[in-house]
Each structure stands twice: as C-alpha cells, then as structure tokens.
Design goal:
Bound molecules: adenosine-5'-triphosphate
Helix content: 55-70%
Strand order of the largest sheet: 6-7-8-3-9-10
CATH topology of the largest domain: ABC transporter transmembrane region fold
Strand content: 5-15%
Distance between the termini: 70 Å
CATH class of the largest domain: Mainly Alpha
Radius of gyration: 36 Å
CATH superfamily of the largest domain: ABC transporter type 1, transmembrane domain
Number of helices: 21
Length: 588
C-alpha cells in the first residue's frame, strides 16, 4: 500500500515538475532578465528525470512485493475456508446447501477472489490519493469549482459503476448450484471416472451436460452484464465530457492570457489524472474481495448456528469407554432434508468385548447405524448411550478416536503403504511392532513383499514409482488400518463389508481369525456374506428400521425367521448342482 501510494505521490510530483519545466522554457531560451538560469533549469530537469525514474520503478517493486504477499494470502484463505468445514465432528453441514454455497462464495469462483480484492486495495488507495492531490493542483493553479466538479463527477460515476457491478455479483451469488454441478462434471471427466466414462461411452454426454450446467450458471450474469454495458457506455461518455469541458476552460483561459504557461502545463495533466483516478475496476475488485471475505468470516458462525455441536465435557473418561456397552435406546433417524425414517424406534445393545454382526437387506440402514454410532449424525429421536452416558454429552472427538472402522467407501490415500496403515492412529505412527503385527493379521505382509519399495511404495500410479493395488489388496490395507487403531487402544471396531472385495482364501483367513482379531473390543461387523457373519458371538437382523431378530447363528436358524431364510438362500446357491446357471455365475 505504501509503495502504491508513493507511486501516486511521485506521479503528482512529475506533474508539478513538468509544469515548472515547460513554464521555464521560454524564459531560458530568451535568457530574459529575471528568468531561470540554465544551471537551475538543468537541476530542474534532473529532478524531473529522477522523480520520473523513481515513479517508473515503484510498480515493479510493488509487483514483486504483492506476489510474495499473495502467495501467503492464498494459503491463509485456503485454510480459512476449508478448516471450518473440517472441524465439526458431525457431517450434516456437508450436506447443507446454504453452507456449501457460502463456502463457494468464500472461495470466490469466477474471479471474486479475496486475494484479488486485497491485491487491488493498494491501487484503489493510490487512485484516491491521485484524485485528491490532482484536484488540489487544479484548485490551486486554476479553479476550485472546476476541481470540485471533476471530483464530484468522478465519484458519482464510480459509485454508479459500483452499483452495476454489485447487482452483477448478486446475480452471480444465486447461481452457485449450477456452478457446483458443472465443477463436479469437470472433475468426473478429468479425474474421478475415466474408466466408466469410456465403457459407457459417456464422454459426449459429459461434455454436453458440463456446457449446459456452466452456461445455465452464468447466463443470468451475462444478461445482467449486457444490461450494464449500455449504462457503462453512457457513464464513460459523461465522464469524458466532464474532462473535456474542464480542458476547454483551461484552453480558453490560456488564450485569454489569464493563465500562465506553467499553470496550463500543470493543470492539464492534473485534470487527466483525475479522469484516470476513476478506479471502477479497483472498486469492483475490492467489493468482490469483501463479498468473499464476508462469506469466509460468516462461514464458521453459520456452520455453528445451523449445526450446533455440544461443547465437549471432560466429566467422563472416554479413553476407557465402552467398559460395559453401547446402547441404542428407542432411536429413530432420518437424514437432513429427507422425510423418511431410516431407523425407527430401534433398540440395540453392543456389549464391550462382544463380536456382534448386523445383517439386513440393501438399504436397511446398517451403514446409517454405524454413522450414528460414530456420532457423525445425531438421532432424530431417542438416544445412544455409552456405559449409560448419552453420546451427546461425551467429547465427540475423543469418542471418535475410540472407534476403529472399515467403512464401505474407505479412503485410499495416494501415499505410502505405511501412511495408509498408520493413519489409523497417527500418534502411534512409529510403533513398528504394531505395524508388523497388523501386517500379519490383515495379510498385507504378502502384498508389501511384492511392492517395489516395500512399505514406502506410494499407492498411486500417477506418482514416480507408485503402484495401484487391486480392490482386495486395498481392502486388506483398510483392515490393517482399522487393526492398527485397535492396537493403539481403540475400544470399538466396526467392519462394514470387510470381505466384499476379498478372494475366497483371504475371506477364509478373515473368518478364521475374526474372533481373535475382535477380541477385547466391542465389535460390529456388517456383511452380506454369512460365512463371515455366522462366527459372531451374536447376530442382529435389521429390517423396517429396527432390530427384528437377535441371537447366535444357531438360535436364529432355530427361530426360522428372516435370518434363517436369508442364510438358506445363500447356502443353497453355493450347493446348487454344477449345471445350473447360478452356479456357473458363482464360479465365474
Ligand atoms: N446421506 C444420505 N442422505 C439421505 N439418505 C441417505 C443418505 N445415506 C443413506 N441414505 C438412505 O438411507 C437408507 C439406508 O442406507 P444405508 O447405507 O444405511 O443402508 P445399508 O443397510 O448400509 O445398505 P447396503 O447393504 O446396501 O450397504 C437408504 O435408503 C439410503 O438411500
């Protein structure tokens, strides 16, 4: 800011010195008595040249300084707009369009950048200094009314231009949903689904949809811009007329002999400087930046207000929980914005040190139950207790650290094998003994032996020396991550479809070791594979939003209910005669 303001002060000094130089020329040429000597004139010229060079250098220095600051600023903004979304322990805010829109605005897409706004602030200040300074020059040397007229016209037109832009921003704000969709499609094409797009021949569809969404997002902005253009041309013409009128007045005064050459030579550039000082662009950019800044500052408050999280209490020692059990008491749940209950008056007890299996058809709500257990969502009705204490009263961060899980869509970090495993408990990242143990338990020791850089191999082919694992290998990595967390002291182990991608041998190994792996923790296993489920200490069947059957494998078979029906159906398929199409499909 200092450099930008210095630049405009030097610019005015150039104007003043130029006036002095031009005014002195006739006297110096004529060597008129009382006129400036050649020596003094040379000093004056030298001063003009020096100031001019200094003025020319300031933008370059300013640019370097602002580039350095900009990098820091972009990093700071990046943190401020992602951290508030990462901080909450629950996840409902990530599905709230108001929050997502606000983040989008804070990110400042389409040029509404906070960094750009701040980058323009020095130039806006500099143009204000030029405006005031040049107006003073015009006032002192020529006419105060003319100076006032020019300043008034400049500010008025700048204000009007700002209003036009503000309307444009308002239109833009209303269209972030289409822009988000366009963004999603772009990423889909570039990164997320290259194989499916080709297999299903979707590239044409994708491009069309992207163009459609993008255009829909920006069409109202363009319409507003088109309407603004007419007014922009008119304001530009008016501004030109005001400046032209002022210069005409200077010319007339000069011709009438009322204004000496020095004053003329100073006033004309000063008038032009006032014209240039109409920094509509700067105003717009700063305004845009401020809009983004407001959204960024409002983001944490809006999230906290719309998705309040109870303050963590230290009354309960979460580190040893659950010592007795986790209970779902009359729990009902529906997702935000939905009008369907996924869980309805559900009662379930998961005892500490017990391996509990949960089965149910697709969409029964098994994964939803896990999300509630982890505190990602709160029950709409009823409560979940841990050793008798309501989960809502616990320090959610500490509780979530107690849970180790393989979720269905587990993360595949494009990092080393070690990182992928120790992320289960980063605070124990150096615990090589546990690492070796979980490698054996999960069966990834075999996988690691086959990798070019062993544990250090990056699991992403786009990196130098990186490799891609198969679905089953990734699943073992996820299992290792969860087990690492258990070795680090987690008290609840959730395995959501841990065998879905495993081959028969790996699945058999998992089944064989299952009770050993889950001993000492409260574990919840969700699987459609009865080979895995049947080994659990207890099995619960989830249907119609509640637990409809509860018992051991043998007990449930004896009950001859839903579990028995599902089990027999699956078992039958494995023993169908070799000629049947089902059996061939299974073999395949
Ligand atoms: N974020 C969400 N918003 C709204 N509805 C959701 C959301 N996630 C899941 N649902 C719905 O909740 C219901 C239960 O889903 P859930 O994933 O818990 O089932 P599941 O028993 O784990 O199924 P599967 O065996 O197929 O994995 C489904 O009808 C699903 O459409």
């Amino acid at each position: 800011m200092g450099l930008a303001v210095l630049g405009s002060v030097l610019g005015m000094a150039v104007t003043l010195l130029t006036g002095q130089v031009v005014g002195a020329v006739p006297g110096v040429i004529d060597a008129a008595p009382g006129a400036m000597s050649l020596g003094t004139f040379s000093w004056l010229l030298g001063a003009l040249l020096t100031v001019f060079i200094m003025q020319s250098l300031t933008p370059a220095i300013h640019q370097v300084a602002s580039q350095i600051l900009n990098a820091a600023l972009v990093r700071e903004i990046g943190t401020d707009i992602t951290e508030p979304l990462l901080r909450p322990q629950r996840v409902a805010h990530l599905e709230d369009t108001e929050v997502l829109d606000m983040q989008e605005r804070a990110k400042g897409k389409g040029g509404f950048h906070l960094a750009e706004g701040l980058g323009n602030l020095p130039w806006l200040m500099a143009s204000r200094v030029t405006l005031v300074g040049s107006a003073v020059i015009v006032g002192v040397m020529f006419s105060w009314p003319v100076a006032a007229m020019l300043v008034a016209v400049t500010l008025l037109l700048e204000w009007y231009g700002g209003r036009l832009i503000a309307r444009e921003i308002d239109v833009w704000w209303g269209n972030t949903e289409e822009q988000r969709r366009a963004d999603y499609l772009f990423n889909l094409g570039m990164r997320d689904a290259p194989k499916e797009l080709r297999v299903f021949g979707l590239h044409g569809w994708l491009v069309d949809r992207y163009v459609r969404e993008w255009t829909a997002g920006f069409r109202p902005v363009w319409e507003r811009r088109r309407r603004n253009l007419k007014w922009s041309v008119m304001t530009g013409g008016l501004h030109l007329a005001a400046n032209g009128f002022a210069i005409l007045l200077v010319g007339r005064a000069a011709l009438n002999g009322d204004l000496p050459l020095t004053e003329v030579a100073t006033t004309v550039p000063a008038i032009l400087s006032i014209g240039v000082a109409m920094n509509g662009y700067g105003v717009v950019q700063v305004k845009r930046g401020l809009s983004a800044y407001r959204a960024m500052k409002d983001l944490p408050g809006t999230i906290a207000e719309r998705h309040p999280e109870s303050a963590a209490t230290t009354r309960h020692r979460v580190e040893t929980m659950p010592a007795r059990d986790v209970r779902f008491e009359n729990v009902s749940f529906r997702y935000p914005g939905s009008d369907v209950d996924v869980l309805r008056n559900l009662d379930l007890t998961i005892r500490a040190h017990e391996a509990l299996a949960l089965v149910g058809v697709n969409g029964a709500g098994k994964s939803t139950l896990v999300k509630l257990l982890g505190g990602a969502y709160r029950p709409t009705e009823g409560r979940i207790t841990v050793d008798g204490v309501d989960l809502a009263e616990l320090d959610l961060t500490a509780w979530q650290r107690r849970i180790a899980a393989i979720v269905q869509d587990f993360l595949r970090f494009p990092l080393s094998v070690t990182d992928n495993v120790v992320f289960g408990a980063v605070e124990r990242a150096d615990d090589e003994i546990s690492l070796a143990k979980v490698a054996r338990e999960s069966g990834i020791d075999e996988v690691v032996r086959g990798l070019p850089a062993g544990w250090d191999t990056v699991l992403d082919k786009t990196f130098d020396g990186g490799v891609d694992l198969s679905g089953g290998e990734w699943q073992r990595i996820a299992l290792a991550r969860a087990l690492f967390a258990v070795h680090a002291g987690a008290g609840v182990l959730v395995l959501d479809e841990p065998a879905a991608a495993l081959d028969v041998r790996a699945e058999a190994e998992l089944v064989e070791r299952y009770l050993e792996l889950t001993s000492g923790v409260a574990s919840l296993i969700i699987s459609h594979r009865f080979s895995v489920v049947r080994n659990a200490n207890r099995i619960c069947v989830l249907a119609d939003g509640r637990i409809v059957e509860d018992g051991t494998h043998e007990e449930l078979l004896d009950q001859d209910g839903m579990y028995a029906g599902m089990f027999r159906l699956q078992a039958e398929r494995y023993v169908t005669s070799p000629e049947s199409p089902e059996s061939e499909a299974l073999d395949a």
